[in-house]
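Input record (one chain):
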Amino acid sequence: MSVVTGQAWRRWALVAAGTALLCALPAIIAAWPVPASALSASQLRARMLASTTVPYQGYAESNVDLDVPNLPDLGNVGTLLDGTTDQYTWYRSAGQWRADVLTTAGEQDTYQNSSGTYVWTYTSNLLTQIIGSQPVRLPRAADLLPPALALRLLGFAGRATAMYPLPSQRVAGIDAAGLRLVPASQETTISAVDIWADPANGLPVQVEIFSRGSAPPVLVTRFLDLSLGMPSAADVTPDPGPGVGYSTTGLANVSGVLNGFGPPLPARLAGYGRVASPGGLADVAAYGTGFARFAVLPLPERTGIAAIDAASAAGGTIPMANGSAVLVITPLLTVLLASPPGGPVYLLTGAVTASLLERAATQLLDTG
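The corresponding structure, as predicted from the sequence alone:
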């Protein structure tokens, strides 16, 4: 039988203590007090808006719980708005970035650089170059990255939106300063938006969106790992290896697809003025101010009928004097599909109340 000396015991005790300390270090760092920021709410907002020139690379996780129904011709939008999205990202500038979405089936990488937009899909091992501009497009995973989402929400916030500082918290190793946005309108489903950013450069690192009547946030996106500094040009440039297929595709003529399916949309709807439409889309419109903003677009007959069928399975029919409508309510987004007898199908959606969309649909059907 061997005898362990006191000196050996001390050595092993030191090894065990060191190992325990290393294992506990992340928790200790996370629990360490975060110094308060000296920035005011307006100063932090200004730094966030100016952060588009801040380069970075990192790993972000987004959790969204909206329970949006699967409507036709919306690609993977339902997946983005109901579940967890993990992605690595490299950002040099607004025109040079890359985002890799990781899934159980593989990954999909999106590149944006001076040559255009590229998408590589693991399952098909195909790199596709997308040619043309995108005045209107479906949401994509990169829109959920904290900087992109924060800047979009700050852009929507109207002058009446209240701003308050939040306690600082540590996000991806950064002592981030916090800002809360509270909409003035009672016709939006958003009760508050919380954004944390690096106080030194304004880069948003975490965003939370709260809906009315729900205590936990319905959307949380944050960096889990973040490194400030300029990624290399190679990081945002596709470099297909042997065996990778290549194709090009032009964007569909969105104006031709979406325009012309109904009478001209009015200048005001449900008491709100019309917001200027991008790309000359006369029959696609947005109305409202601040977070109380909603979109209206007429759908082609086949798409409209399929959308109503899908929405009917997730929502409920509501009575309309001059037509029919289906309403789908989620914790954040509200969707209403309305159609007059023999007329087009109108899709109305936004982070707004059901009563607002019902007023808007009634006006459309009465004038259609």
